[in-house]
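**Protein of interest**
===
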Amino acid sequence: MEIASVTTVLAPLAVLACPVGMGLMMWVMTRGNRSEPRSDRQAPSESPPQPASLEVLREEQRRLNEEIERLERRHTSGAETPGERR
């Protein structure tokens, strides 16, 4: 009979263990966020990075076009020039 009384006492505790534990974890986590100073939680006041200038983008496009042409020539010729690897 003693085992039955222990089981009836522990059954509701087992059912409540998950929600109570989850609530406790949420409370601790939100409490931890409040302890930080407000200035640390705000986004840094750095200005967003400036987009690359048009000249820089055109130079990059020219360089990439040359690289594409070089690779296409190498692919169509079937032979590698000295110093190039496949």
